[in-house]
Design brief:
The chain has 18 helices and no strands. The protein has helices at residues 2-23, 26-39, 43-68, 72-79, 83-114, 118-132, 138-163, 168-176, 183-194, 198-208, 217-247, 257-266, 268-295, 302-306, 308-326, 330-354, 358-361, 368-397. Helix 3 packs across helix 8 (168-176). The longest helix has 32 residues, at 83-114. The protein starts with a helix and ends with a helix.
Amino acid sequence: MNNKSNFNWSVLLGAAFLMATSSIGPGFLTQTTVFTQTLLASFGFVILISIILDIGAQLNVWRVIGVSGKRGQDVANMVMPGLGYLVSLLIVMGGLGFNIGNIAGAGLGFNVIFGLDTVTGAIISAIIATSIFLFKEAGKLMDKFTQIAGFIMIILTLYVAISSAPPVGEAVSKTFMPDIIDPMAIVTLVGGTVGGYITFSGGHRLIDAGVVGKQALPQITRSSVTGVCVTGVMRVFLFLAALGVISNGFTLDPANPPASVFKLAVGDIGYKLFGVVMWAAAISSVIGAAYTSVSFIRSFSPKVENNYRWFVIAFIVFSTVVFAFVGQPVKTLIVVGTLNGLILPITLLVMIIAAHKKSVVGDYKHPIWMSVFGIIVVAMTAYMGVLTIMKQLPKLFG
């Protein structure tokens, strides 16, 4: 019995960290420091509201796929035949586009730590990421790796936050009584934390580990909330680090805001620490994006199901090859970034509909407050998605 509970706790923590580290990528680091620069201590309010909304989105998605024991694409196909294929296409395209950026971030991390060429660093990082999936126990290895990466990022960022001597009292008071409320920042953070493939990463991991059914609901709930809280803790520490640096009169380098936070707070060693955090953030996002993207096509073909680890490896290798030979194709990233903004409102709405369909969840009764919560997130992220499309289309044809 004790072994089983240990296994379950390890899986639950692994799923939570897979989701959390998938969302903490290079974009997360930049986004957090830039918003802190703009909103100062009032950014604490944005973080608080986004964490509450993230939990609302996560609970809806994880509970439905957990109770049904079916992955996101299969639930979507049960809601409307063919919808699962569309969702899978959007997620695989989004995952591939962002993985090119994540691989680039891992290369940059190695460049900062060791002075290696970015492409060489990216290739070494890809070899490390793919090696996890060469083992039969890839799931357990992935759990351990993402947990270690998550703890490293949090501890180093906490050290930088303490070193930067932020005005904690002001940050706390402005979290509850902000000078500025920026709705766009809230929606951006929600999309960045649970958008695209991210919200499904941990849920699909639980399905693979067999943590499914109504009896597993307490564990599923705990794991989903833990994932959002881990992301929230990392965001708070980075916010405090940036706020400390800015409050002490320093100006962040617009070319690389998060790196300048680390450097200005701790000196040259801080720049190296940034490299470690950047690499850990990027490599764990590479693993999360590849694993989750492939999980969205597993049920469509026995060949993919039986060889999914090799498909994950191929996904990482392809992303690396594109980065090594093409760099980061700007238009591709604009397209997938725009599509990513549409994934969360579509998938979350599908999950809320599925939550009330007996054919999907049986006799499970989904709480009404949770559905209402989810609908609010759908409306906010759909609005943001439409705005993003209108803003990005001119860049594609310009």
